[in-house]
Every structure is written in structure tokens, then in C-alpha cells.
TrEMBL record:
It holds the Pfam family Arginase. It is an enzyme of class 3 (hydrolase). Keywords: Hydrolase, Manganese, Metal-binding. One of its GO terms (cellular component) is cytosol. This is Arginase. It comes from Kutzneria kofuensis. It comes from the Bacteria.
Length: 278
């Protein structure tokens, strides 16, 4: 079998500071289901790394930023070793540690574009994309350079808070709700414009971007999402136009899954990302 790009599979089994609970149980569930074995079957060399919080004090914010810094160190080490970094995360905000400039394609049922000033709940993970573009918490992980908003495409978001939606519409982020993401012409235009500005992207997939008719990925799942074929087609379209140099799968809560359908979908898309990665 033809050798594939070496991979570093980074697992962060935390949700809001809690280890192996709720969505934090997702990375380890995917690992136990054979994530690394599937990748090796495709000819990849895989190095698995489990990122742990070292601090004895655990809280949503303190632990999240500690984990982001640890993820950043793993991502830097992976790139220095010529490896493709793949992140399995409980929370979306762990992706911030993966960013290394270039572009960002963010699949999610939600905008994740709240800030501490706009969030109705204060939920940190609802601020993940806002962190990625430097709208909040910029001093928390100084190793990470925010992505320029015009180099971000948000795919599949359909459940947003009012102030969050207003901020998103006033931003330079290209937002493709599910109907626009399925529109071949609209999608092609947005991805082609992104590829003209950047030569590499990080792909972030919150698994609740999938329609819950497949199975709810987590307790935040919202109706009207994308199907597996939609996500596959969009990922191939990205890779046809620019390089995918790292990726994240996030927010899988096995308790919400029916018949392991989201688990199996996640493993399929993990293999696809590894195949498309450069």
C-alpha cells in the first residue's frame, strides 16, 4: 500500500474542564472505536498523543486555555516532524491551539461567535470561533496568531443567539448556512475566493453540523443540518482548491448517539481528512 502522510492524532478528552464527561468522552470513544487503526489500514503512520490538564485546579476557562497551549505545542511539534496534525477534541475551543495562520473552514451547527459581552450564558465554547479570529481572549494563548476574518468560512451554522448573529453578519466571515453550503455555485465561489487569499487551511468539524436525523452528535444538536455526503463534497471541494494542513473533529457526546451512527460517520470523515491532508 502506498505510504501516506504521517499523522499525529491529538486527543483532548475534556468538556468545560471535566475529563471524559459529556463531549469530553468523545475523543476517547473514537480512539477505542479504532480511529488510529482505521488510519493505519489506509497506510498512514500514526502517532497518538493524549493531552492532559496538568494543573490540579480545574475550571472551564483555566483548563480550556491550559489545553489550548498544550495543543499548540503538539501542533508545532507535529509540523516540525513533517506530520499532519489531527485533533479529536471535546470542546471546539481546543482548535485555537491548532491554528497557524492561513485560512479556516469551520463546520458547526452554531456560530460560536459570542464574546463575553454578548453571550447570554457565558459558555466559553460558544465563543470558540470568536477566539480564533481574535475577538476575545487574545492574551490567553499568546502562541496563537488569530486568523483574519476574511480568511474564515463558517459552514452549516443555523442556531445562533441574536447578538451573536448580528456580530457575525457584521464581520468579514463568509457564512454558509446549510442551504448555501449545498448550493454548488455559491460554495464554489466562496471556496475559490478563499483559495485566492490563502495557500493552506485548517478544517474544524463540530460533529453537530450533521443533521440530527442521522443521530444527535451532542445535546446542542439543531435540526436542518448537513448530511454526510454534503460534508464529504465540501471537504473535497476545499482540497481541490487549497491545501488542508490540519484538522479537528470536536463535540461528540456518545450518550446522544443512536446506534453509533455519528461515531461511524466521524471515523469515516477522519479518514477522509487524512487522505486529503498535505
Amino acid at each position: 500500500m502506498t505510504a501516506r502522510l504521517p499523522l499525529r492524532l491529538i486527543e483532548v478528552p475534556y468538556d468545560s474542564g471535566h475529563r471524559d464527561a459529556r463531549m469530553g468522552s468523545g475523543p476517547l470513544a473514537l480512539a477505542r472505536a479504532g480511529a488510529a487503526a482505521r488510519l493505519r489500514e489506509r497506510g498512514h503512520t500514526v502517532r497518538e498523543r493524549v493531552v492532559e490538564a496538568a494543573s490540579r485546579w480545574r475550571s472551564e476557562t483555566t483548563t480550556a486555555f491550559e489545553l489550548q497551549r498544550a495543543v499548540a505545542a503538539e501542533a508545532v511539534a507535529a509540523r516540525a516532524a513533517g506530520q499532519f496534525p489531527l485533533l479529536l477534541a471535546g470542546n471546539c475551543n481546543s482548535t485555537v491551539g491548532m491554528l497557524a495562520g492561513g485560512g479556516l473552514v469551520w463546520f458547526d451547527a452554531h456560530g460560536d461567535f459570542n464574546t463575553p459581552e454578548t453571550s447570554p450564558t457565558g459558555f466559553l465554547d460558544g465563543q470558540a470561533l470568536a477566539m480564533a479570529v481574535g475577538r476575545c481572549w487574545t492574551a490567553a494563548v499568546p502562541e496563537v496568531v488569530p486568523v483574519a476574518e476574511r480568511n474564515v468560512v463558517l459552514v452549516g451554522a443555523r442556531s445562533l443567539d441574536p447578538a451573536e448573529e448580528s456580530a457575525l453578519r457584521g464581520s468579514d466571515v463568509a457564512w454558509l448556512p446549510p442551504d448555501q453550503a449545498r448550493d454548488v455555485g455559491r460554495l464554489s465561489t466562496v471556496l475559490t475566493e478563499l483559495a485566492a487569499r490563502v495557500d493552506a487551511v485548517h478544517v474544524h468539524i463540530d460533529l453537530d453540523v450533521y443533521d440530527p436525523s442521522l443521530a444527535p452528535a451532542n445535546s446542542f444538536a439543531a435540526p436542518g443540518g448537513l448530511l454526510a455526503d454534503d460534508v464529504r463534497r465540501i471537504l473535497v471541494g476545499i482540497a481541490e482548491r487549497t491545501r488542508i494542513t490540519s484538522a479537528t473533529l470536536a463535540s461528540y457526546d456518545p450518550r446522544c448517539d443512536r446506534g453509533s451512527r455519528i461515531r461511524d460517520t466521524a471515523l469515516d470523515v477522519l479518514v477522509l481528512l487524512a487522505e486529503l491532508g498535505t
